[in-house]
């Protein structure tokens, strides 16, 4: 059996998307499951779209996720270099080879010439394609004589290398996830293999690199399915054995009904309206916003989808809004979705060097890498027994490409938060202590006390910062008191009751067990129900009727602070 070798080959044209992380993860899991090797290769031939810092971002993101390559630009390996921009001499050699076959030719058509031909076709209601029906009419080495070609070459006329698609062949294609398919070559065009600057396009470069690096399996997104016929023929043209292919389904936009609520409907409406008016400048912002909000107000109704499909008596703006929303709320998950609905689509924050804009990252939003990777893994793959919480090693032991779904996987913000909550619970208190100490929170408290706070608060935490946010009363006294809680917990007798309790606390040993007994005895001696004492006491300490057991709070903030907060509350409710 051949050694399994897989590669993740991103382009450094921006931050790594959730879908890219999943592809890298499935590559990694498959390699580890099969005892194989995982290669990181940077496909940086698209110089026009190259983004400074993107390659470093990709490597840092994968490291944060725990997806460690066996070979990479940074680590090296026996098939180095691992950047396409450093492999020009290899591509030049194979360009010469393919031009000796009947599978490639050179074309001298300029962009302007092709635009003019495209316009002629469109004027007749046709669509132009550079293929086996048109290539004999264009400026290339098939249509021109040898003398004409040589003359153009002698004059240093720029040219590209195109693949010569065979005529009327049925290609039988196999995919591990999707099974058998076929395509007729008459439906495929003559793709550019080498650009006029001498650099190969993705199609040619990745075939060469996969062959040179002995890649056995190519796992990639379904957007590359239409290229499978071309790539299969390229292997044939070069006389090479093709790897096995597996095309992953899309990660789909989340269900909008789970994202819109009364607190965010206005901001989401504004975001959608800005995009709509940008594309439809003939409509006013206010009128567009009113229509969009009217639809979003019904988003949790069973009628919502049918409302978007109804078209009777629609005026122009309503019809346009419906089309815009149908398109904008379905399909592939994008960065815009994260911006609109307030969730990250990138593993780490990314600052665009051109605009200075920062795109949200899971790491900076408080997600643990283990939770993030677990969530991503289950976007399209089902482990045995429908298990949901798995470590990276456990995933690798179970991973099977045959269990990867053909259908698109719908992203869920709610589920991603659920995963993070589960992993927060699995963390040792000491681990969370280090995470909090390394955060930008201003925690002016000794480690021992912080550990106790973590133990009390982590059960309610989805993110590490929630331990602080939900337990802020441990770090600072309340400056106001919840109005609804105040009406429930405080009456004309309460100040006297808490004043007397505060006096009783002066000479008390301040630990939770002792405090619980003291408060209980105080209430019993006064003939009061525990609620008459505990509720206002909690309100005085916290500012709301929430938090862990009152004696635990008192022990951690200390005697002086506890009595001070009780007196502050008494003064507030005078």
Question: What does the model show?
Answer:
There is one protein chain. The protein has 574 residues and is mainly α. The protein is 45% helix and 9% strand. It has 24 helices and 13 strands. It has helices spanning 18-33, 54-65, 88-99, 111-123, 146-154, 202-212, 228-238, 265-279, 285-296, 304-309, 316-328, 335-341, 369-377, 392-398, 413-426, 429-437, 447-457, 464-469, 483-489, 494-505, 512-525, 530-542, 550-557, 559-572, and strands at 5-8, 37-40, 104-107, 160-163, 170-175, 179-184, 192-194, 217-221, 244-248, 251-252, 350-351, 358-359, 409-410. The strands form 6 sheets. A 3-stranded antiparallel beta sheet has the order 3-4-7. Strands 1-2 form a two-stranded parallel sheet. Strands 5-6 form a two-stranded antiparallel sheet. α1 crosses α14 (392-398), α13 (369-377) crosses α15 (413-426) and α21 packs across α22 (530-542). The longest helix has 16 residues, at 18-33. The mean pLDDT is 95.
Secondary-structure map with pairings?
Blueprint: E1 5-8, H1 18-33, E2 37-40, H2 54-65, H3 88-99, E3 104-107, H4 111-123, H5 146-154, E4 160-163, E5 170-175, E6 179-184, E7 192-194, H6 202-212, E8 217-221, H7 228-238, E9 244-248, E10 251-252, H8 265-279, H9 285-296, H10 304-309, H11 316-328, H12 335-341, E11 350-351, E12 358-359, H13 369-377, H14 392-398, E13 409-410, H15 413-426, H16 429-437, H17 447-457, H18 464-469, H19 483-489, H20 494-505, H21 512-525, H22 530-542, H23 550-557, H24 559-572
Parallel strand pairs: 1-2, 8-9, 10-13
Antiparallel strand pairs: 3-4, 4-7, 5-6, 11-12
Helix pairs in contact: 1-14, 8-9, 13-15, 16-17, 19-22, 20-24, 21-22, 21-23, 22-24
């Amino acid at each position: 059996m051949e050694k399994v070798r897989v590669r993740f080959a991103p382009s450094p044209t921006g931050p790594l998307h959730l879908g890219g992380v999943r592809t890298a993860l499935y590559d990694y899991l498959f390699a580890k499951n099969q005892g194989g090797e995982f290669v990181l290769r940077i496909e940086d031939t698209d110089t026009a779209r190259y983004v400074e810092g993107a390659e470093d971002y990709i490597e840092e993101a994968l490291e944060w996720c725990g997806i460690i390559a066996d070979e990479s630009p940074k680590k090296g390996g026996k098939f180095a270099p691992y950047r396409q921009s450093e492999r020009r001499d290899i591509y030049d050699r194979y360009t010469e080879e393919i031009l000796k076959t009947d599978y490639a030719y050179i074309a001298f058509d300029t962009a302007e010439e092709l635009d003019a031909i495209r316009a002629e076709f469109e004027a007749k209601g046709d669509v132009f394609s550079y293929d086996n029906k048109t290539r004999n009419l264009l400026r290339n080495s098939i249509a021109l004589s040898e003398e004409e070609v040589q003359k153009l070459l002698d004059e240093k006329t720029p040219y590209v290398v195109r693949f010569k698609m065979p005529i009327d062949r049925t290609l039988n294609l196999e995919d591990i996830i999707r099974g058998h398919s076929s395509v007729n070559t008459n439906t495929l065009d003559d793709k550019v293999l080498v650009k006029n600057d001498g650099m190969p396009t993705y199609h040619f470069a990745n075939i060469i690199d996969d062959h040179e690096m002995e890649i056995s399996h190519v796992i990639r997104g379904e957007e590359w399915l239409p290229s499978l016929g071309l790539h299969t023929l390229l292997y044939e043209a070069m006389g090479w054995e093709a790897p096995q292919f597996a095309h992953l389904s899309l990660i789909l936009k989340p269900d909008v009904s789970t994202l819109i609520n009364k607190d965010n409907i206005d901001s989401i409406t504004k975001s959608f309206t800005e995009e709509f008016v940008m594309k439809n400048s003939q409509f006013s912002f206010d009128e567009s916003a009113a229509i969009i909000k009217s639809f979003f107000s019904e988003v949790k109704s069973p009628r919502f989808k049918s409302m978007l499909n109804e078209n009777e008596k629609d005026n122009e703006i309503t019809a346009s809004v419906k089309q815009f929303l149908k398109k904008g709320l379905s399909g592939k998950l994008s960065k815009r979705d994260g911006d609109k609905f307030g969730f990250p689509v990138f593993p780490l924050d990314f600052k665009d060097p051109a605009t200075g804009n920062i795109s949200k990252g899971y790491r900076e939003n408080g997600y643990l890498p283990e939770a993030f990777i677990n969530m991503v893994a289950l976007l399209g793959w089902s482990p045995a027994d429908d298990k949901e919480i798995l470590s990276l090693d456990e995933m690798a032991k179970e991973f099977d490409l045959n269990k990867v779904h053909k259908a698109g996987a719908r992203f869920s913000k709610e589920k991603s938060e659920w995963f993070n909550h589960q992993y927060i619970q699995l963390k040792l208190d000491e681990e969370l202590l280090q995470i909090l100490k390394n955060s930008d929170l201003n925690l002016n408290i000794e480690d021992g006390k912080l550990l106790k706070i973590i133990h009390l608060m982590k059960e309610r935490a989805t993110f590490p910062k929630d331990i602080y946010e939900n337990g802020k009363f441990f770090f600072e006294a309340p400056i106001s008191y919840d109005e609804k809680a105040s009406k429930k917990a405080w009456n004309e007798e309460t100040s006297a009751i808490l004043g007397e309790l505060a006096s009783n606390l002066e000479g008390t040993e301040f630990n939770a067990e002792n405090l619980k007994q003291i408060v209980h005895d105080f209430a019993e001696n006064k003939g009061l129900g525990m609620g008459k004492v505990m509720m206002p006491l909690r309100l005085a300490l916290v500012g709301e009727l929430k938090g862990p057991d009152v004696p635990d709070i008192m022990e951690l903030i200390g005697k002086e602070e506890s009595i001070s907060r009780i007196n502050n509350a008494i003064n507030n409710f005078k």
